[in-house]
Design goal:
Strand content: over 45%
CATH topology: outer membrane lipoprotein receptor (LolB), chain A
Distance between the termini: 37 Å
Structural class: mainly beta
Number of helices: 3
CATH superfamily: Lipoprotein localisation LolA/LolB/LppX
Largest sheet: 16 strands, mixed
């Protein structure tokens, strides 16, 4: 597994969103320079440290993840390595297995009242690492001295660095019903020819909570076993 060095939590690099004006640059010219590994990157496996913060509470956990283009499985461990649960998403729903309290929930991603570390698990980790944009989905382009802003059909705003063409920030519209409002990417690094972020911060839909993921190990295109959660027979699944 390729290791990516990361120290403790650092201040996020800010995205320059000031003084944006309509651009004459075609969306296809920008998107064509942005890293898109959908045809080359089919699966990932790795680990990281997640710092979960919300009003009055901060928690540090270790996450292990495996992901392909269809599903993403996250295992959560506390500071001393005890496994607390598993989370599996298929993009539409999230299955949460709480190993400590011995129950499982399956809830929709949109409008499902997903919070804390579940916000991270609600995203397909592979898609999160390489957020792909199609120029056909871009409705407008704005720019300032350092940043392009791509407005997508969905209402999502994607901020792209003008020098590197790497995504710096993704903002979701208020009516998206997604469990997160913003994603910030930082500390990109190269591994096996792929340029991927080492730090990703996900802000809750209510804009009061945040999950900051620091990736400490990553394997690209591994052969994965079936991405499933094997629930014990006595664990009920609640659908709410």
């Amino acid at each position: 597994m390729g290791l990516i060095s990361c120290s403790g939590p650092k201040k996020l690099a800010s995205t320059n969103t000031d003084n944006l004006n309509s651009s004459t640059i075609e969306a296809s010219a920008i998107v064509g320079n942005m890293p898109n590994y959908q045809s080359k990157l089919h699966s990932v496996q790795g680990k990281g440290r997640a710092y979960v913060s919300e009003p009055g509470n901060t928690n540090h956990v270790t996450v292990l993840f495996s992901s392909n283009r269809e599903k993403s499985l996250v295992t959560v461990r506390n500071r001393i390595g005890v496994e607390g649960g598993k989370l599996l998403t298929d993009g539409d729903t999230l299955l949460i297995y709480n190993k400590v309290d011995k129950f499982a929930r399956k809830i929709p991603i949109r409008g499902g009242n997903i919070d804390r570390i579940n916000q991270l698990a609600s995203l397909n980790i592979l898609d999160l690492l390489n957020y792909a944009v199609s120029s056909d989905n871009v409705t407008s382009v704005e720019e300032n001295k350092s940043t392009y802003k791509l407005k997508l059909i969905s209402g999502t705003d994607v901020y792209v660095d003008k020098n590197s063409y790497l995504i710096k920030e993704v903002d979701e519209p208020k009516n998206s019903e997604l469990p997160y409002s913003k994603i910030i990417y930082d500390a990109y690094g190269s591994i096996q020819g792929f340029k991927l972020p080492r730090r990703i911060s996900i802000f809750g839909a209510e804009k009061k909570s945040k999950v900051a993921l620091q990736i400490t190990g990553l394997e690209l295109n591994p052969k994965l076993d079936s991405l499933v959660i094997d629930l014990p027979d006595d664990i009920p699944i609640y659908y709410k």
